[in-house]
Design brief:
Structural class: mainly alpha
Shape: globular
Order of helices and strands: HHHHHHHHHHH
Number of helices: 11
Distance between the termini: 29 Å
């Protein structure tokens, strides 16, 4: 479909004989035949998955930058608030602004999530304190599936919205968003499909060391909420974060129950659970930025050249937490409800 700048090859080994392989990791001859290559492979794959998520983010950024520029230049329609005035650039129309804000909010939330995890990679490698290195490693283990899957899932439909803002022009290959869309799709498939990422999350990451590592990760978000829930300028946003955290905990209890009573429910819901988990973590990270930005905006004042940057950060966080994070409790309600129709249905119904 896309990836015109990527050279992709299929390799075949051993067709002419004399093909040998080596187990990676510890010497299997000295380790009861266990090479532990899978453990080594997952360490390598963590960064490859981060890079796949980052390429997805880059596509989203590129698409919305082009959509923004087009919206600033294209003159069409009159404002509903002043229909007798002349035609305006479409960036002034409410739905176009919503589209661009939706893109900006996702971009900044995903970027906040990914850069927090990139920091953990540096901490794991360089921090002199063993406790910090361990905490960084735990964060990487939990969040790598989120950083790979969430941007590559959301990017497909987000870029579709960027195309939509062009109108008919968006479907023409002369405009860059068409190529960006086809480039984008592979990322949800590469380095383990996003369903595999979701099963990694619910099957492995949530259960590391009896679930204690994941529990600590959720608790950090709870602590952040408790420390900021009375923030005067962001009270509604933190209320939403608190509501999402409460719903998420109830969802985890439901998943734990299904693992004992009906294990088929785990793969049925895992992908939606990953999305909700990502949105919760993104909400926590972008609100962290908003707290700082709101403070800095007051300090520098409206005449400062960075004032719009800071107020934009706050507005973006508001949009994400009030328009995207509510999906967390929507997913929680679905998981708790436990509908089994997709499992129970006979395969023959798909023939109609």
């Amino acid at each position: 479909m896309g990836q015109h700048g990527s050279v992709t090859a299929s390799l075949a080994a051993g067709q002419n004989g004399h093909c040998r392989g080596w187990l990676l990791g510890k010497d299997p001859l000295k380790n009861e035949g266990k090479g532990e290559g899978m453990t080594q492979m997952f360490q390598m794959m963590n960064m490859a998955r981060m890079q796949t998520g980052h390429m997805s983010l880059s596509c989203i950024v590129n698409a919305f930058a082009n959509a923004r520029d087009n919206a600033k230049e294209r003159i069409q329609g009159r404002l509903m608030t002043n229909p007798k005035a002349g035609r305006v650039a479409i960036i002034n129309h409410e739905n176009t602004k919503r589209t661009l804000m939706m893109g900006k909010a996702h971009i900044e939330a995903i970027r906040a999530m990914m850069y927090r995890v990139y920091l953990a990679f540096d901490q794991r490698h360089r921090d002199p304190e063993p406790a910090v290195r361990k905490a960084a490693n735990d964060l990487i283990e939990i969040t790598t599936p989120l950083c790979k899957a969430y941007p590559s899932d959301e990017g497909w439909w987000l870029i579709g919205e960027a195309i939509q803002s062009y109108g008919g022009y968006g479907y023409c290959s002369e405009y860059p968003c068409a190529q960006i869309a086809t480039d984008m799709k592979i990322y949800s498939i590469w380095e383990g499909t996003n369903f595999i990422q979701s099963m990694d999350l619910v099957g492995r990451k949530m259960n590391m060391k009896g679930g204690s590592i994941f529990s600590d990760w959720v608790q950090e978000m709870v602590d952040f909420y408790e420390a900021n829930k009375d923030h005067e300028a962001l009270s509604k946003e933190f209320a939403n974060l608190g509501k999402a955290l409460a719903a998420y905990k109830n969802m985890l209890k439901a998943l734990a129950g299904y693992s004992k009573t009906n294990v088929s429910m785990i793969p049925l819901y895992s992908h939606r659970v990953l999305t909700a988990t990502s949105q919760l973590f993104c909400g926590r990270q972008i609100l962290d930025q908003a707290v700082l930005a709101e403070k800095r905006a007051k300090e520098v004042g409206p005449d400062h050249f960075d004032y719009t940057f800071y107020t934009g950060k706050v507005a973006t966080a508001r949009y994400y937490v009030r328009n995207v994070v509510p999906n967390v409790w929507a997913v929680a309600e679905i998981v708790i409800d436990g509908d089994t129709s997709a499992i129970d249905v006979e395969i023959d119904v798909f023939e109609d």
